[in-house]
Each structure stands twice: as C-alpha cells, then as structure tokens.
Amino acid sequence: MNSIQLNEYSHNGFTLTEPEEILEIICENHAPENHPKFDVRSLFFITENIIKHSTHTSIVSKSDEIKPQNFDNFISPLCALKSIGCEMSCKAVRENSAQTTTLGIFGKLTKYSWEAKAVLALAAFAMEYGNSWLLSQLYPQSDQLTTALAILNRVPLLLNSTANFKKQQGTVVELNKTINATLQVIKCILKLDELSAHIDPNHASLKSAKKDVPINTYWSILTIVSCATEVFYLTRDEEKPQAVSILSHFVTKRINDILAKLKRQLTICQKEIDEPKIYCKLLKHVAHAPRKITHVFNTLILFKDNAYAKPATLSVGYTNKEVFDIDVLDGKYITFYISTLDNVSQKDIVSLKEVYEGTENNKCKIVWIPIVEDWTEYGREEQFMEWRSKMPWYAVQYLSPATIKYIKEEWYFQNKPLSVLMNPHGDVENLNALNWIRIHGINFFAFRNINVKTWIASVMQELMTPALDTWMKEGEYIFFYGGTDDYSMEQFRMKANSAKVSILEELKIHIKLFCVGKMEKGRSFSDESNAGRFWSSIQSLLSTLSDYKLHGEHTALRKQVHKLLSYKNDESGWCVLSKGSSVVTSGHGWAIAKVLDEFDQWKQQISHERSFGTCFQVYHEKVIAQTTTSGAHSAGCSFGNARNMECCPVCKTPIEATLVSYKCCRMCNLTPY
C-alpha cells in the first residue's frame, strides 16, 4: 500500500503498516525452536469441520464428519485458544485497531511455528463463531440451559427480527466467503509444509512460496481479526463504523489474491512431485504396449494426464475435424513432424506435402506434434490453428507433460524441427528423417533405418543405376570413388583396373568400380551434380547421426562418416569399398590405391577364414599407420604452421585447419579440416 492509502485507513480508524515493516516485526518475535507441541493438523481438521458446518458454504458428507475415535489422544490447546479468542473479541473493538490486535496475537504465539500460529488463530475464531451459530440454531426452541447460554452469547440480538436478519444476511454471506477463503489459505500453508519433505528445497516455486509463509500468516490472522470484528457488530444493535467495512473489503481482496497465488504455486510444486511418477507410468505403459502402431500411438501420444492438462486430441489439419478412431493409422508408417509453434518451417511443409501426396498406397501417415509447454499463453491456440490450416495431415494438440518429456529425452528433441519415423509395429526406425525428407522427398523411405554396415546403400539411393543395384544385391566388391582433380581420379581408375585383373586371376573375385564424379573444390552441397548429391547425402547422414545420443556402433559410424566427409576437398580423391551394401572401409584415394598396388604383398593372408574384404581393411590400416610414422603420405603433404592445428580423423596427427566449412540445409556447421 502507498502512503496515501495508509493515511485514508488511518483517518477511518484502521492504520495498516507496510508489509515489509510488518514482516520485520513478526520475524523478530518468531522463535519456534522450543514451541509447545500439539497436533497442528488434528486441530486444523477439527477447525475446518466447525467452519464447514457454521458457514454452510459446502455440503458436509459423512466422510467429512469428525470421528471421535480419531482424536482419542488429542488434547486441545484450550488456554491458548481462549487467550486468542479474548484478544479478538474484545481488544479489537475496544482499541479500534485490527493491526494492533493481530500483532498482539503474534506476541502470544512467539514460540509456535508459522503454520501453528495460523491454525491456532483460526481455531480460536471457529470456537467462538461455531458456538454462536450452534446456539442460534437451537434458540429459542430448546431447554432453559440453551436459552440462557444463547442470551449470554447475544444470540437474540443476532436473530432480533426478520427485518434485521434480512438486512444482515448479505453481510453474513460475504463474511462466510472470507472465512472460507482464509481457511483455504491456511490449508495451502500446511500443504506447502508437507510438500517440503518431498521436493527439492531449492525448487523455485517452493522457495518462493515458503518465503511468503510469514507474510501470508500475518494476512490470514489479520483477516480472522477482521471477521471477528464483523461478528461483533452482527451481535450489536448499532451501526457498523465505515472503517470496519473498509478494512473488511480490503482484507477480503488481499486474502483472495493470496489464495490464488498459493494455488498456482502448489500446482507447480505438486507437478514437480507427480511428474516423475507419471513419467515412469508412461515408460511402463509404452514398454508393455502391444507392438502395434495404434497401441503405441494411443499409449504414448494420446497419453492421458488428467491432473494437469487437457487430454491430447488428434485432428485433421485442413478440416479441423477431430479423429476419434485411430484405426486409420493401423498398419501404416507414421512420420512425426515435431516442432515448436515458433519454428515450423514453410519449406518443411512443402517437403512433407511431397511425401504426403506421393507415398505409395498411402502407407505413410504424417502427424504434426507441436511441443507447447503452456497452452494458456496468449496467442498459442491461434498460432496452432494457423499452422494446422496449412497442413493436410494429422495434428496433435495438448500433449501431456509426460509425453513432451519422453519426446525430449527419448527422441532427443531440442527445440528444432525433427521428424521421427515409426513403423507399423510401433518401433522407431529413424530418429531424424527430416534431413532425408528435405533432400530426397518421397525417396526418404530408403533412409528410414540407419544401418551401421549398409549406410552406403542409403547414400547412393539418388545415384542408383540398374547395374549398381545388381552389384549390391549380388554382394560384389565395389569401389566408390571421386575427387576434385581429374588427374587423380584417372590415376585411381587406372590402378584399380590394373589390380582387378590380378584379383580376378588370383581369387576369382570380380571388382566393380563406380565413379561418383568430380566435385569442384569449394562448391556447396546444393550442387545438383552426382558428386554434389552424394556429399549432400553424406552431410545429412552425419547431421542425423549427430541428433542421436550415440553409443557403440553408431558412434563408430559417425566417426567413419565424419572421416569420409573430411576427404571431400582432398586432391588425392577418396574411396569407399563395400561388399554389396556392406561397407568394408573408406579412405584417401592415394591410400586405397596403394593397397591395390601392393596386392601381391598381402594376398597370401586371404583364406576361408579371412576374406578379401577383411585382409584389404587390415592392410589399409597398416598403410595409414606407416603414413603416421613417416609424417606424410606419398603425395607429399605440407602441414604448415601448427598454430591452428586439429587432429586428422584418419591418422590422429595434427593437420592445418582451412577456411572451408561444410554447411547443410539445416545450417549445421562442420568442424573444418
């Protein structure tokens, strides 16, 4: 409150000090270490029951009734309650200062915890308030004892006449609402105390809520004092001062504001506790779901978390029509396009439309999954509807927090668009097919499952010829090669052709050559030549692998692909040897040519146990090792100044970094070599 408001309240008889000053006063007199012990929660339960019956603002079921056997060992802090009750019912009116009374109550409760202070004040009020309303229900159709007690408690004045009762009825209704709001605030304070044992004390919402407990306790007790003053005038045949009405209106608004804030904080804290349990439940359900796309979709994507969010819904983009029968997905592949509402790409929509319109026999369905943490944020619904209107495929709205966490942790979504491909059995085949969709459109299906051994088949999909397809299917040894220099490429071809004659004569093995083509130095991956498309696919493969939390074989594959990409601008060219679609090795063109040149030195190693491919790979590694020892390969490399050196992906020796960086359509930068 500002100083003008303070003066107004002071003029009307109630002076309210700034909250900061109040906090300092009540905290100075707070020493709960050795406070007398009593069962705070039992006292609150009894108090809540009294208020529920007295205010009639809710239907009290049998389950809410007090069961005496539950309180056999409970001892009421009667002296403290009567002392507080006297402070409220007498002093507040006599001195005409609700704040003085409130601070007086804090003075009496110095050794109690904040929670206990609030519950004791509410219980003291409830004892007086409940007693008055109980007697008003019994009076005057009762015995002489009840009548006498009612007279002493001024009940006849409360029920003086029908006209007076109607006049006061509005006040009673508002009073009861304020009492119940205060009850709920104190209930929230107790709940926060309970949650402290189950949540990280450094959690932001819990810290903020706990920090507010002293001042919230103060406002709760001040509101209780204000309500006691209202009750005082209900039992008097005199006009209520304007200052009492002003105070009552002010504290009612403040206590309702506090209640709204506490509810938000409690919801967040409760989510912090519940979400790990809910997430474990989701993981368990997904693990045990029948291996069928519809079951997995229903279990994972439409997972119901009714505690915190609207249930997830599936709808058709253009029509905005909700889909209730997910059997339309049965037996299909699903491409999940996952994004935030802020980074949906119009180019991605165009690429996905090609897949949507061209998928053979409609075997692949597309489902857009927008990752939205809070749908109540301004403009989110409109943003969703705007994007959905541009998509003819399915869209999911209101994902549960558990599903969002699953997508982030299991599918590695990091706030950039992602496409996850799931097969008809509900198994993920590709964790980021978006790169392939952007490059190959409908042909991305060839890349749906990254295989550590057969990745070359996916990369060559765009360059596939009938002959190459036959070689791969028949398991022939194939040398894929290319470079930036015509002379080096021709030299490799001549050496390979010479060696393949000897290999055919010695081993009866047919060697096949496939020239990917020349890539001009420094040309971008968007080059439409065969070589450009090849390197674009290699970059996309590397980007896809970078989106995995890699381990084992996939880690080795990423290193292998990264190594191959480093040869792109090498003047000696590059080469990949495969047996069918299974990659044997890859390397510099000069190193592969040297292995072929020296075939006579390692051919004796070939046997039934050791294949041509295995022996080739071993000798290739030997050549690389010899190069590492000599410091440079036969073509004569100058390593230059060592200031900006990095490790070669082949021999691990320092190499000079160039100004060339590789970029894909996702604008990912590769470490320069």
UniProtKB/TrEMBL annotation:
Gene3D superfamilies: Glutaredoxin. It comes from the Eukaryota. The gene is LOC103323836. InterPro entries: SEO_C, SEO_N, SEOA. Residues 20-282 form the Sieve element occlusion N-terminal domain. Residues 453-665 form the Sieve element occlusion C-terminal domain. This is Protein SIEVE ELEMENT OCCLUSION B-like. It comes from Prunus mume.
